């Protein structure tokens, strides 16, 4: 009996022990589940916060949060993933606009059909840049900080292409317009958001307390970057690649032996007298085949002296075209204008260039590009540059209203002569014009207010603007001989768009300029949001005491403040101009010419 009781007690004890163990296990499991749920909740909260932070720099926050909402459930999503998602969403919406434009009715007036064609072309360029951006981010073995400015450069172009398409379509009264603009509302908002996120990336990663992924924050913030001009001891250096022969007057005749860089031979020779392979530039350009043979870096066209009255189109896929001539003797000319031929401003250009934005640019040397429509022709572009990494050296660009259109991407002009009357240097690209002559011509009788620079940046986070560095601003002979010079009001610039950006640095400014320096854009308040800068200019027109009292005009005295508008920083010249110099022989300053 005793043994039986003991056995019962042992069994009970064992059951209690097992129950206790199971209870402990259950409690531990419950606690583990609670911890996992809490961690998941924390991760979800963190992801939701990340979406909010990433969208903070954007103007269209609702659209941004809808776009990035799927990533809120992925705790491992990085800021790069958010940026990629915003770019892919923009690409999808641009595709929709492109399809809407392509599906428009054929039963429309020819001029409207031409506008649709131009719009679809611009949208296709935007899609190509978006695709290239995604591929770069996914495949390049570099940190995002290494190519953030290239990314911003492309996204700026993406937004600009859509703005240009919208401006073209808006001029039509046909019923298809509303459908295209309806689709474009989403595409422009998402493109704007992607650009804003890329531009605010340094602040985003700071806000999220994330290790900076080997980013250089100086590279991410154009306005405050000083690294490129700092020497090892911390003092401001003045780098230059200027050879000794560069003492001649800017814009003067080219060196005795014009032509491409060392050891370069032309692939095609063009000559009006029949001594070359072709008699027109257009025929020469048509021989360009893609891709170029292995080891061949550029396609070189030599245009002998003569006047070539033709419009030349170097297509976007025709990369690294280099065209050079015999200085003043080689002239490309046409007379197309907005008034005479009822054309949109960009299509009046003597040269229309659409070159792939893959780091390989157009080069021109010792040429004259001339629009002969005259002052009565009004908008008449002589040269339109839509080429990433373009270099224009020892060229003359002659027109009146809207002479040089720096349409998109990074561009460099050296020792050129640019003539015109109103807004004759304009566009939405990032251009530095260095050691050149800027010449104001006599306008038609009804035009009294003359303006040199008009930048077209719409958004504060776009990469773009126009810089005149070490240039000479003077009057043409016809203006010098004008008896009543006082009837003309000549200004350095005006803000074409809300975020117009222009810098005039180390330049010789003539005394004929209005002391105010700048004039507002009609029926707008862009002077409240634009960004205009002057630094260390000289000449009678450089006195700043009576400049306009805009808070957006900055008369800089510290070279560190002006440094963001140098070749080294503004167009990242150190990365590509050295290679282009080998090809074209164009010298350049990375920094300033004076300490």
From TrEMBL:
It catalyses: [(1->4)-alpha-D-galacturonosyl methyl ester](n) + n H2O = [(1->4)-alpha-D-galacturonosyl](n) + n methanol + n H(+). Pathway: Glycan metabolism; pectin degradation; 2-dehydro-3-deoxy-D-gluconate from pectin: step 1/5. Transmembrane segments: none annotated. Its EC number is 3.1.1.11. It is found in: Secreted, Cell wall. Residues 253-263 have a biased composition (Pro residues). Residues 235-266 are annotated as: Disordered. GO terms for molecular function: enzyme inhibitor activity; pectinesterase activity. InterPro entries: Invertase/methylesterase_inhib, Pectin_lyas_fold, Pectin_lyase_fold/virulence, Pectinesterase_Asp_AS, Pectinesterase_cat, Pectinesterase_inhib_dom. SMART domains: PMEI. The keyword Lipid biosynthesis does not apply. Residues 46-197 form the Pectinesterase inhibitor domain. NCBIfam families: PME_inhib (TIGR01614). This is Pectinesterase. It comes from Cynara cardunculus var. scolymus.
């Amino acid at each position: 009996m005793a043994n039986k009781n003991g056995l019962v007690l042992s069994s009970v004890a064992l059951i209690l022990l097992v129950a206790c163990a199971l209870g402990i296990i259950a409690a531990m499991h419950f606690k583990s589940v609670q911890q996992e749920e809490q961690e998941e909740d924390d991760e979800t909260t963190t992801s939701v916060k990340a979406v909010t932070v990433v969208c903070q720099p954007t103007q269209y926050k609702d659209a941004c949060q809808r776009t990035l909402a799927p990533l809120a459930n992925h705790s491992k999503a990085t800021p790069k993933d958010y940026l990629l998602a915003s770019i892919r969403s923009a690409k999808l919406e641009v595709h929709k606009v492109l399809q809407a434009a392509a599906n428009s009715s054929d039963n429309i007036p020819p001029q409207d059909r031409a506008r649709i064609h131009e719009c679809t072309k611009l949208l296709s360029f935007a899609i190509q840049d978006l695709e290239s951006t995604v591929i770069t981010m996914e495949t390049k073995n570099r940190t995002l900080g290494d190519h953030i400015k290239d990314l911003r450069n492309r996204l700026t172009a993406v937004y600009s292409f859509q703005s240009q398409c919208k401006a073209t379509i808006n001029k039509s009264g046909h019923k298809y317009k509303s459908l295209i603009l309806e689709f474009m509302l989403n595409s422009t908002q998402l493109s704007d958001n992607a650009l804003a996120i890329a531009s605010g990336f340094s602040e985003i990663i700071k806000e999220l307390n994330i290790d900076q992924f080997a980013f250089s924050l100086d590279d991410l913030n154009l306005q405050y970057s000083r690294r490129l001009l700092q020497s090892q001891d911390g003092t401001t250096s003045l780098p230059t690649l200027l050879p000794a022969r560069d003492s001649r007057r800017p814009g003067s005749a080219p060196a005795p032996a014009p032509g491409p860089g060392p050891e370069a031979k032309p692939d095609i020779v063009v000559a009006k007298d029949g001594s070359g392979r072709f008699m027109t530039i257009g025929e020469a350009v048509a021989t360009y085949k893609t891709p170029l043979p292995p080891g061949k870096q550029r396609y070189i066209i030599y245009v002998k002296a003569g006047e070539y009255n033709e419009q030349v189109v170097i297509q976007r896929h025709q990369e690294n075209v280099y065209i050079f001539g015999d200085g003043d003797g080689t002239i490309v000319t046409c007379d197309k204008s907005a008034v005479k031929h009822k054309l949109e401003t960009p299509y009046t250009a003597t040269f229309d260039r659409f070159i792939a934005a893959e780091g390989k640019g157009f080069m021109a040397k010792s040429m004259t590009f001339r629009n002969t429509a005259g002052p009565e022709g009004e908008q008449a572009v002589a040269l339109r540059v839509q080429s990433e990494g373009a270099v224009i050296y020892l060229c003359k660009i002659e027109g009146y209203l809207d002479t040089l259109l720096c349409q998109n991407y990074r561009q460099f002009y050296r020792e050129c002569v640019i003539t015109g009357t109103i807004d004759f240097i304009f566009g939405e690209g990032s251009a530095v014009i260095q050691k050149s002559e800027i010449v104001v011509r006599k306008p038609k009788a009804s035009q009294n207010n003359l303006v040199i620079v008009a930048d077209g940046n719409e958004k504060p986070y776009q990469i773009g603007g126009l810089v005149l560095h070490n240039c000479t601003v003077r009057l043409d002979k016809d203006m010098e001989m004008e008896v009543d010079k006082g009837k003309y009001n000549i200004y350095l610039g005006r803000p074409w768009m809300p975020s117009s950006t222009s810098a005039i640095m180390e330049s010789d400014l003539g005394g004929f300029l209005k002391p105010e320096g700048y004039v507002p854009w009609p029926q707008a308040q862009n002077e409240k949001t634009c960004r205009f800068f002057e630094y260390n200019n000289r000449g009678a027109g450089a006195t700043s005491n009576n400049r306009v009292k805009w808070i957006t005009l900055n008369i800089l005295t510290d070279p560190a403040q002006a440094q963001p508008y140098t070749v080294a920083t503004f167009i990242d010249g150190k990365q590509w101009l050295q290679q282009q110099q080998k090809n074209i022989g164009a010298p350049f300053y990375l920094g300033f010419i004076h300490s």
